[in-house]
Specification:
single chain; alpha+beta; 6-stranded antiparallel β-sheet; 8 helices; 15 strands; about 30% helix; about 30% strand; disordered C terminus; binds N-(5'-phosphopyridoxyl)-D-alanine
Length: about 290
């Protein structure tokens, strides 16, 4: 039985009540985070909570009253659900108001958190890699905000499945923006890691940031610039990063194999470095 955290209380999921006038429901006025835990300890929680603050500020949503204790609530939620390795999903909406575009809620913002067990190092995407398709990025121009308005992503992922692949990468006039729920990296013929620089046009992934740091420490050359669609045809390797993918090899794009169609050496090395990091992060944070 799943226990969630809703507006100050731990409740059974089936007993939880959210108002039909919640603006997350009527207007999609909400933001979220997905933070994974390994052996009971969160990976890069401060970065996720900092991004939550940025998303809240960008949307003008008041932080929930539990903001200062979020990390310990996340931890307790894991324990109450008996999850050691998995994720916490955290959503904040602006709260309840009559259905009117501009009315500001009088009460508190809504905070909902749930925990799910999952071993991300054992997924087929992580172990074997994924096949993807390309689609024009039809989303809005504030993709740096981690909003719950995810219809374009849901449609793109469903369309990928209908086309026999597992995910969609988006592109705009400058090149690849990001995956439907991940950031995209390419390894060029010289072994240089290429990924799009941060801007309002993509999410500042916490995994992206960590991978860049680990890659730099390991001596890789990094070039933050847009990846052209045509470059995928000649890329040595390609991979995506996210809290739940960790680092997942991309094996083909629109039916064309990347290099020999197998996970590349650089990708495997970065998977290894990241897994060592998240295991160590768990130990380092054991007392939080
Ligand atoms: N999504 N870009 C988009 C559009 C995303 O939705 C995500 C994460 C990322 C990667 O961010 P991070 O490394 O901080 O997880 C990039 C989460 C996992 C989700 O929506 O489930």
């Amino acid at each position: 039985m799943s226990i969630i955290f809703l507006n100050g209380a731990y409740v059974r999921a089936e007993d939880a009540r959210i108002s039909p006038f919640d603006r997350g429901f009527t207007f999609g006025e909400g933001v979220y985070e997905v933070c994974i835990a390994v052996n009971g300890n969160f990976v890069d929680a401060p970065a996720h909570l900092a991004r939550l603050d940025r998303s809240l500020a960008a949307c003008g949503i008041t932080a929930p009253p539990e903001r200062v204790e979020l990390h310990s609530i996340m931890k307790e939620l894991l324990q109450k659900n008996d999850v050691r390795t998995g994720l916490v999903y955290l959503q904040v909406t602006s709260g309840v108001s009559p259905r009117n575009f501009t009315t500001c809620p009088e009460g508190r913002s809504t905070l909902m958190m749930l925990a799910q067990a999952s071993d991300f190092e054992q997924t087929p995407a992580f172990r074997d890699g994924i096949h993807v398709q390309l689609q024009e990025d039809i989303r809005w121009l504030h993709r740096d905000i981690k909003t719950t308005m995810l219809l374009p992503q849901v449609m793109a992922k469903r369309n990928a499945l209908a086309n026999g692949v597992s995910d969609t990468l988006f592109y705009d006039a400058l090149g690849i923006t990001e995956g439907a729920s991940s950031n995209v990296f390419l390894v060029d013929g010289h072994g240089t890691l290429v990924t799009r620089p941060l801007s309002n046009l993509l999410l500042a992934g916490c995994t992206r940031e960590r991978i860049l740091e680990l890659a730099q420490e390991a001596g890789f050359v990094i070039d933050e610039r847009p990846i052209q669609r045509a470059e995928l045809a000649t890329a040595a390797e390609c991979f995506v990063t996210s809290a739940t993918y960790l680092v997942a090899p991309v094996l083909s794009v629109d039916g064309r194999a990347i290099a020999d169609g197998k996970a590349g050496q650089v990708t495997r090395r970065l998977q290894h470095l990241y897994c060592a990091y998240i295991a160590g992060e768990g130990r380092a944070c054991a007392d939080i």
